[in-house]
Here is the input.
Amino acid sequence: MSCHHPWHPIISAQKATVRASFSLSLSNSLNNSPLVSQEIKTIDKLQPKPGPNSCPLTPIDFLERASVVYGDCPSIMYNDTIHTWSETHRRCLKLASSIVSLGIKKGDVVSVLAPNVPAMCELHFAVPMAGAILNTINLHLDTTAVLCNLLQHSESKLIFVDSQFASLVQEAISIFPSNLKPPTLVLIKDEYYGNCANDYYGYVDYEKMVENGDSGFKWVSPKSEWEPITLNYTSGTTSSPKGVLHSHRGAFLICLNLLLDWSVPRQPVFLWTLPMFHANGWSYTWSLAAMGGTNVCLRRVEAPSIYKAIERYNITHMCGAPVVLNMLTNHPCKKQLESPVHIMTAGAPPPAAVLGRAESLGFIVSHGYGLTETGGPVVTCAWKQEWDHLSLLEKAKLKARQGVKTVGFAGVDVVDADSGVAVTRDGLTTGEIVLRGGSLMLGYLKDPEGTSKCMRDGWFYTGDVGVMHPDGYLEVKDRSKDVIICGGENLSSVEVEAVLYSHPAVNEAAVVAQPNRYWGETPCAFVTLKKDSVEKLSEKKIREFCKAKLPLYMVPRMVVFKEELPKTSTGKIQKFLLREMAKDLRRS
Here is the structure.
């Protein structure tokens, strides 16, 4: 049996139970010749025989159904551009056929570097429909060298590029090794963004690919639902992003899981404030098709444009990191919403004060927890009716907890990292958060050691630190690398940040470990202030505020005021950069 894919499955049997795990590698030869192994033959024998009850699960099926059920309903809105679901289905078929005509084969990686524009919605369907693996790239990579390395690591054969980033890609490709063939370039022109009239040498035109494609194209359905559908690189709060492979099956399951857990109704109007390149927009890029929803694209995520879009399009749902909530509640243009807007936040533990302010404006906030490796939130703070009578602040504190596993996920627990034994459910005892379920990644590309390190004993070890409350609700306390050990005491930076956010003049806050000769580490706070704040804050005032609410050992020993905190493109504060700053600023 031959295999074109840059991955191969490994099957092992334990106590008469067959478990499928995945070790990922690419051929080390330049012509991408396949690695054939006994394991591939084994899994082939274990696959169910083709039949009416063994169709591979894939979210691509959502598009075909949407074209029938919601054919004349809007699928994509972007300024004055409006597409219906039947048009989107037809455009994706034509685009997929053109991708294949460029020589892309099943299992090849196709990259995309673009903001939240209509092409990003279409490519989430068209690339898998061509049998390829979709790789959406972070728009805020540090250097062209990083982009160059990523394209080489993924062995990308084709890259779709928004005109804003065309020169960046050209620079990255210019430093490719001479013995490697760079990916074919396709230009996405956006009439609402300047610089579109320029001719870029060597680029294929996106709209011409759609125009010249075959609307009768028979899209390439996966033979196995375990085949990869996406390759996502982790967002970069550390300096070494990993390539996360997800299967058609996992993407299908997370889509239905999120729709059910968030109670998404038919035909929601969804505003894209979450980057589609980040974990494929938590898989809502596909799941909205299942409900015939409208994708309202937003090129730049800014408070004025968000409020304008909410009013213009009658937005019902949106997603974003806590930084988006903070932006909306602190901006001078903030306003009371005429109709409620459901917003799912995840990516970092949101301070209760920020959640409270958002809900007071009319946002209905749902809080989730997930990682790139899970394809989207798999733990959410399921609301209980008995909490309805609580005050706004008490509700916000409960919503700040991550919650319980979603309906379609298998399990979540907090365990001792060394023994794997579950910690006491007292809301105090910390441990590492572990997960298991169908939407978990296949593994890390070309990193079997990293894959086996985090996926062991039937669990995925997240590297996050949390507690389990007596009622079974999870609360994330920190990333393991962000825990501060002060005089032998483990200190949660998240808890200190929550206190800082409760100060009326504080806009953003981040707390990191600062080396100390006596205590080992002490908390160092980096703070930005609200622009309309009239109070003149000092380091002393911030420390006094914290002393009134925290044990002394948790009070920041140093407070640094900044104009802006360094963030990833998804809104996560880059604490590894702040830790370096804290080292340079440390006091003797």
